[in-house]
Amino acid sequence: MNIYVGNLSRDLTEGELKEAFETFGTVNSASIIKDRYTGESRGFGFVEMPNQEEAQAAINSLNGKSLKGRTATVNEARPRTDKPRTGFGGGRGRGPAGGRRY
């Protein structure tokens, strides 16, 4: 099961995140999402646990608990929905009038 973990402290490491979930069972991976430009934590991550019961126990126990000083949000990760990127917000023209003619 893929688990979303939000509201993470910027100081929390992937090792510490994995360790918190290993209390409940086997952890395949633990990753903290980082900003691509600064390399700093974006405050959320994902943990992959192969056993459904262990994963659910981890979710139930860790949701709302403090991880390194911040109250974690823990739940089953939803599938990512890729939205098409238009590049400029999908506007209809250029300039402040949005391409309208007066």
Describe this structure in words.
The protein has helices at residues 14-22, 52-62; strands at 2-6, 29-34, 41-48, 66-67, 70-71, 73-76. It starts with a strand and ends in a 26-residue tail after the last strand. It has 102 residues and is of the alpha+beta class. It has a four-stranded antiparallel beta sheet, with helices on one face. The chain has a domain at 2-38 and 50-70: Alpha-Beta Plaits, CATH 3.30.70.
Please identify the structural class as seen in this structure. alpha+beta
Taking the alpha carbons of the first and last residues, their distance comes to: 56 Å
CATH superfamily of the domain at 2-38 and 50-70: RRM (RNA recognition motif) domain
> What is the CATH third-level topology name of the domain at 2-38 and 50-70?
Alpha-Beta Plaits
CATH class identity of the domain at 2-38 and 50-70? Alpha Beta
Strand content: 25-35%
Secondary structure: elements and pairs:
Elements: E1 2-6, H1 14-22, E2 29-34, E3 41-48, H2 52-62, E4 66-67, E5 70-71, E6 73-76
Antiparallel strand pairs: 1-3, 1-6, 2-3, 4-5
Summarize the structure.
This protein has two helices and six strands, in the order βαββαβββ. It has 102 residues and is of the alpha+beta class.
